[in-house]
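Service request form, structural biology core

Requester: graduate student, group of Dr. S.
Request type: structure prediction, single chain
Budget code: on file
Notes: please return the result as structure tokens.

Sequence provided:
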Amino acid sequence: MTTAISITPASQARRKKILISAGVGVSVLLGLLVMASVIAGFGLNLKGFGRAVLNVIQAVRHQPVAAQAGDWRNVIFLHHSVGENLIAQGQVREQFSAAGYHFWDQDYNWKGLHDPYGQATGYSYNVPGDNTDPDGLLGIFSQPVFDLPLNTLSGLMQHEVIAFKSCFPASAIASEAQLAEHQAWYLKIREFMVQHPEKMFIVVTQPPLNPAETSPEAATRARAFADWLKSDEFLQGQRNIVTFDLFDRLAESNPQAADANMLRQNYRVGADSHPTPTANEIIGAEFVEFIINAVEEYKQTRPQ
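Core staff response, request fulfilled:
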């Protein structure tokens, strides 16, 4: 015997109401994902959404601490592994601290932001795709700027002196067309920096590659890119933009050498492109001195 189930008008109305509520909920969630994706620059996925929201909440709560210092003594460095080694092995943070500077650094997103004491803050400035290659940097510097650290660029702009660096892929330049593309991206980044004379920007050239990971032609183009980033053509006399040439400090400068424009022999081990601790010890001190001198000159020459 089959029992018929009666669907009353009241139950139909309740079911319709539930479906409408569920649809509204999904629409709101998708709207939040799209809005957060635009603001913070991450992909449309729940995992990325949740992580980014938590990062933003912590960054906003911590904002008064991150923004403190004044007199252009608050430095942020956006980097990956080469920068991490430079900081640790070159005692960069300790030297900045001794000079009265607050030095922060943003590593890979999973490592996050570190404060002037070298402590992990527990959050990141949400670098989209963890991409600090030239195209990734352009994406960051194309983000909207908010007073609060709601995305990568707004996080960086909490600080007064902003240093940033591409890593190894920026030295793997396969053609003249790709070199021109890299330059075009940095010219767009420069447009943003020129519009913000209240901040100082330190362009750090990319590191060279180990001979095992590049070719003479690509290495020559990598040298040309680094040279261009410190040229008058790129800088155009802008007081708030300077270039620290990491590439030149690490690369073989003898054009007749087999490893010309590649990571120097005394700065490499095996096929690894990461510079040795010796290289970082030497260049770490130069990095700190360069930024401090650049800041002092900027303070003396900037428009009042």
